[in-house]
Amino acid sequence: MTDSLSFPSGPWPTLAPGWVWLCGAGPGDPGLLTLHALNGLRQADVIVYDALVQPDILDWAREDAERIFAGKRGGKPSARQVDISLRLVELARAGKRVLRLKGGDPFVFGRGGEEAQTLIQHDIPVRIVPGISAGIGGLAYAGIPVTHRDVNQSVTFVTGHDQSGETPSSLNWTAISQGSQVLVIYMGIKHAPVIAKALLNAGRPADEPVAVVTQATTPDQRVLETTLGTLVDDLAASAMQPPAIICVGRSVLMRQVLDWQGLAAGEKPRNLDPLGRGRPAEQA
Ligand code: SAH
Q1: Which fold has domain 135-274?
Q2: Are 168 and 162 in contact (CB under 8 A)?
Q3: Of 105, 187, 254, 259, which residue is the catalytic one?
Q4: pLDDT tens across 238-283, in order?
Q5: Where exactly are the structural domains of the chain?
Q6: What is the pTM of this model?
Q7: Average pLDDT of the chain?
Q8: From ligand 1's centre to the CA of 283, what distance in Å?
Q9: How far is it, in rounded angstroms, from Cα 97 to Cα 91?
Q10: Which CATH architecture has domain 20-132?
Q11: Angle at which helices 81-93 and 112-121 pack, to 10 degrees?
């Protein structure tokens, strides 16, 4: 394997000794890495990765690269954020070419901003490589468009946990539920009952479509289609485990026609026009 990829469009950035690239790994499927992430993986001496980074992705790294796990495993508490950031500083100061790999996009509920800030405060040169966030790419793999012209003109990304691990009490759930037609909730499984109740109290209808997607974009992806009123029971019955994205809104109905993975496996579309807009020929 060569040290860096050769790309057709001229020189690509070098991950130089002493640098840290803070890279999104996407939601799981290695094919959803960016070329910059791949280029970094091929060059890095050290890869510091999170629990959400699919193991397959590390196969794209140099064989001799050191792999350092910096996430939660087996119920043990995760490495403290400050310890991770300072470890990155240490590695960079030791002259390593460091790739910090985080699930999804590092700046979307990923604490990437904090890590980058610490690095810059310590005079470590940094490159940020965005990734495909689970709340967009993961839903796409479930056949759910995060925006759809007939459904929503805005979308709200929400975290179901705050710093203390509790449901974000600081969030104004009434404003959130009134603010956009589609809500995409990260880290929402544990607090799904509280969240569903808050949204129902805020006036979202009980029959509003909801999808829960776990392990999105991996071979273990599972999708639960339910409604706000039945979410809690269906979720409990499904025994689905994090990581999960919860999508609330009518765009979930589009899965009835857009479940492209199901179609590829030989299923038929359940409904070619789930929003009742008429088929394209009729619309014309
Ligand atoms: N930076 C990440 C989010 C990190 S927060 C991103 O941009 O995607 C962790 C949460 O992300 C999980 O609790 C879950 O809500 C979501 N998530 C990440 N990967 C996922 C996956 N493959 N399937 C479903 N949810 C995922």
Answers
A1: 3.30.950
A2: yes
A3: 187
A4: 999 999 999 999 999 999 999 999 999 999 999 999 999 876 666 5
A5: 20-132, 135-274
A6: 0.93
A7: 92
A8: 37
A9: 8
A10: 3-Layer(aba) Sandwich (3.40)
A11: 40
Q: Is 161 exposed, middle or buried (0-12, 13-18, 19+ CB in 10 A)?
A: middle
Residue 284 pLDDT exceeds 90: no
Q: Is the CB of 245 under 6 A from ligand 1?
A: yes
Q: Tell me the residue length of the chain.
A: 284
Q: 3-17, 70-84, 191-205, 254-268: which range is least confident on average?
A: 70-84
CA dist., res. 72 & res. 126, Å (int): 25
Query: Pairing state of beta strands 209-214 and 222-227?
Result: antiparallel
Task: Specify whether the CB–CB gap between 217 and 192 falls below 8 A.
Answer: no
d(CA 68, CA 231): 37
Tell me, using a 6 A CB cutoff, whether residue 141 lines ligand 1: no
pLDDT band at 1 (very low <50, low <70, confident <90, very high): very low
